[in-house]
Structure prediction request, 450 residues.
Amino acid sequence: MKKTFTLAAILILFAQVSFSQGLHVLSQREQAEVIDQWLEERIKTLLPSLMDRADIDMWVIISREYNEDPVIRTFLPATWHAARRRTILVLYKAPNSQEVETLAVARYDVGKSFKKAWDPESQPDQWKRLADLITEKNPKKIGLNIAKDYGHADGLNVTEYNTLLEYLPKNYHSRITSAQSLAVGWLETRIPAEMATYRHIQAIANQIIAEGLSENVITPGVTTTDDVVWWYRERIKELKLDTWFHPSVDIQRPDPDSQEHLRSFAVKADSEVIMPGDILHMDFGITYLRLNTDTQQLAYVLKPGEDDVPQYLKDALKVGNRLQDILTSQFVTGRTGNQILRETRKIMESEGINGSIYSHPLGTHGHASGPTIGMWDNQGDTKGAGDYPIYPNTVYAIELNAVVFVNEWNNDVRIMLEEGAFYDGQKVTYLNGRLLDFMTIPRKSSHLGN
Prediction:
């Protein structure tokens, strides 16, 4: 008998933890069912309000195989890895309707959500059918994925755009508008079911991070930072997960001549042998159920005779945690990324904190759509993406660093942190806690807190 799964039953599986094998990861089939159910729910419960907010009643997404629009990927069923030939999706919200009609100008249905609206036998020309469909619906505004500020929302290529104009009656050309705000809203906003699972996804990421920065993987004096990086890559594959970037592991150590705390993020750190007394910093992310994590945490390699992290390093980490608190306190609905950055920097400078803010949205992309809150190479305003306001039900990588002078090292220590967090419109909540204590090698105690 064929076994079926309800969404509730699948989500219950997330709670099943095997301490010998790690947090439970769904099978490919189970993942596909969750992804498709989420898509149906997002279209029904989220899309109508987003189209109203953007004042767009028709959204046309056009994509060719192997040159996919970033947005179309989020509308495809789990069993589709790419557009087929030319795939055209039409999303239309009729006047006074509370629902969005979803149609595919394609040779077949696109999953359960988009019903076939083109019969090549009766109308061989796909573009003619699209033009006829648009005139039949007679929308006030036709949103296309043409965007200045976000690559995610700029997926319509020039060939498709010019061809559409050739077929569309000229009196409809003036109705064409950028769908940037609609595309960003669709990509950045999470539904309750996704948020119920995002914590689990971050927990998986945190467990992999902790395992990699432990005596299970690292032998001081032998293991290199590149060894740990490639262990992370192998571990991700073993768990049947994906990653959206190559991890990194780097070292800060008590060397007065060290310039590591000044290294530009554009320059990859050299691979080094891990030694007692080192601070290890890593940057790591996974992709699971079409959602992404992005995390930076710290570990300390205990010296012989040490059973805890030196207090001066604990104090330095507290400065980083304080900077996190300052930043998240400035999240206010409607405030732009640039405004959040400016207000955060005012407070940190008044408290004498030396650091940088470079936080970004998380979601269907790692560096996702939404308000940019500083950049590592620009602590002033970011035009365009920095002017975008923050909305509720969105997820962010709270990414920053605090530079703290340590007398015992006679040098600065850069406390680099990044944690996934959810903004519900009132407050920011970390998806699976945040780093409040250095992990130790060998492990001393739990390192995550609220």
